[in-house]
């Protein structure tokens, strides 16, 4: 079952060479943050290129519930009339964040230092994910959480009436935890300081600076120390959301999987905190070229061209994990068609994503005839070479968009079709995936439920 309707099984069949240009949707992380910071500034924020995936639509609805006026002007153009820091309204109903961990965790941070109460829920995937990593630091500001089963959703958060600023070192590499603390810090008086020992995506820091917050980042080689002065007046912005490198990974890796392919993916965000996959692919020997390197909206971007060619398995170092955390599912599918084994270390955060992504990929790859090894923090895929993966299996997607898209890509290059039990979750981040891949030449078939 998908979170938003009946299951939609689908198969990927051996595909002819993929050719053409893939315009992938807007960045999911930046889209969530644009809506949230828009809601916290006074006046109108204009956003173009917003990702209109279900995750972001759920955040837009939540911002309305907290008092912002969010308007869809069509064609990816949106506006948000914000209420300002410290002026959030109390929602009249439960906030349903659907499948989105980023949505619910950032929104909990946003409201934790306001004297209001809200109850959050989500789909079966989100209700199974840990929220203590967010509610623990929010308690330091003075907020109180009442969650199910040790802090899972549904969860009621009572915001602090008299918040205090916080100094917090994130215990795991998580941009969601860092961002929740920073957003909470916005409405606490004085200075909130967040330290991370591994750099994670820095869109919140960049965007807070863009909205006029007093924020500094100091890097000493061991850690990043982020200092935020509370209770600023945020100034509304005009934001052009760059295209999502995590979505781009699918047509790029599909081109590397399917013999004879040559695909251009324009305008890809290449923020170094997000671009680890491309370093890894290069090390595997991928034929990738970055054309037209430039800066847009404070983020580095380029047009990326991917051509099929032989790949070799490699060791992906643990210190790269945070910069490609969402790309391990598609990397592991690609690794199955490389020569030799690919070893992914330092990846235990994958176990608490929309699904346990190591387990979901391992079981699906095994069903397709691939040998894998795993422990809590490591995932190893034994490559079978181009055309070597048997396929002919049904893979469980577990309400996880990236698992669904990874197996659809793998199935384009297996000996027998690969079926997924439900394509529904793809709507959360890449609603045009099926059509876009079809336009490049992918052969997909809808199956009966
Ligand atoms: C995100 C952070 C990452 C990532 C998620 C988006 C964000 O999660 O997996 O898809 O926008 O902050 P973690 O912070 O849990 O690593």
UniProtKB/TrEMBL annotation:
InterPro entries: Enolpyruvate_Tfrase_dom, Enolpyruvate_Tfrase_sf, EPSP_synthase, EPSP_synthase_CS, RNA3'P_cycl/enolpyr_Trfase_a/b. It catalyses: 3-phosphoshikimate + phosphoenolpyruvate = 5-O-(1-carboxyvinyl)-3-phosphoshikimate + phosphate. Residues 17-435 form the Enolpyruvate transferase domain. It is found in: Cytoplasm. CDD domains: EPSP_synthase. Phosphoenolpyruvate binds at residues 28, 101, 129, 176, 357, 402. Its main location: cytoplasm. GO terms for cellular component: cytoplasm. It holds the Pfam family EPSP_synthase. Keywords: Amino-acid biosynthesis, Aromatic amino acid biosynthesis, Cytoplasm, Transferase. GO terms for molecular function: 3-phosphoshikimate 1-carboxyvinyltransferase activity. Pathway: Metabolic intermediate biosynthesis; chorismate biosynthesis; chorismate from D-erythrose 4-phosphate and phosphoenolpyruvate: step 6/7. Catalyzes the transfer of the enolpyruvyl moiety of phosphoenolpyruvate (PEP) to the 5-hydroxyl of shikimate-3-phosphate (S3P) to produce enolpyruvyl shikimate-3-phosphate and inorganic phosphate. This is 3-phosphoshikimate 1-carboxyvinyltransferase. It comes from Oceanomicrobium pacificus.
């Amino acid at each position: 079952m998908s979170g938003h309707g009946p299951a939609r099984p689908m198969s990927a069949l051996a595909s002819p060479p993929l050719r053409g240009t893939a315009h992938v949707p807007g960045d999911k992380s930046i889209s969530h943050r644009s809506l949230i910071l828009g809601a916290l500034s006074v006046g109108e924020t204009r956003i173009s290129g917003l990702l209109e995936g279900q995750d972001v639509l759920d955040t837009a609805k939540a911002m309305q519930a907290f008092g912002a006026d969010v308007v869809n002007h069509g064609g990816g153009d949106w506006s948000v009339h914000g209420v300002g820091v410290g002026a959030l309204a109390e929602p009249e109903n439960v906030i349903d964040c659907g499948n989105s961990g980023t949505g619910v965790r950032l929104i909990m941070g946003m409201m934790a230092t306001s004297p209001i109460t809200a109850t959050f829920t989500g789909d079966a995937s989100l209700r199974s994910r840990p929220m203590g990593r967010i509610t623990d630091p929010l308690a330091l500001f003075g907020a109180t959480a009442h969650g199910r089963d040790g802090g899972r959703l549904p969860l009621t958060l009572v915001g602090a009436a008299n918040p205090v600023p916080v100094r917090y070192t994130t215990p795991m590499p998580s941009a969601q935890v860092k961002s929740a603390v920073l957003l909470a810090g916005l409405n606490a008086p004085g200075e909130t300081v967040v330290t991370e020992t591994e750099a994670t995506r820095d869109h919140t820091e960049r965007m807070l600076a863009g909205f006029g917050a007093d924020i500094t980042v100091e890097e000493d080689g061991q850690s990043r120390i982020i200092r935020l002065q509370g209770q600023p007046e945020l100034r509304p912005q005009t934001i052009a959301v760059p295209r999502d490198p995590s979505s781009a990974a699918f047509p790029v890796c599909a081109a590397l999987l399917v013999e004879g392919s040559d695909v251009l993916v324009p305008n890809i965000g290449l923020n170094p905190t997000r671009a680890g996959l491309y370093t890894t692919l290069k090390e595997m020997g991928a034929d990738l070229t970055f054309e037209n390197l430039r800066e847009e909206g404070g983020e580095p971007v380029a047009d990326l061209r991917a051509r099929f060619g032989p790949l070799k398995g490699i060791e992906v170092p643990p210190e790269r994990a945070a910069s490609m955390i969402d790309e391990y599912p598609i990397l592991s599918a690609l690794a199955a068609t490389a020569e030799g084994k690919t070893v992914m270390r330092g990846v235990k955060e994958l176990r608490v994503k929309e699904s346990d992504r190591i387990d979901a990929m391992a079981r699906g790859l095994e069903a397709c005839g691939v040998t894998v090894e795993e422990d809590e923090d490591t995932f190893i895929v034994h490559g079978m070479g181009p055309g070597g993966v048997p396929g002919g299996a049904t893979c469980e997607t577990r309400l996880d968009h990236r698992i669904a898209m990874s197996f659809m890509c793998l199935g384009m290059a297996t000996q027998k079709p690969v079926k997924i039990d439900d394509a529904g979750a793809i709507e959360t981040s890449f609603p045009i995936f099926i059509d876009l891949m079809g336009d490049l030449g992918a052969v997909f078939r809808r199956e009966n439920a």
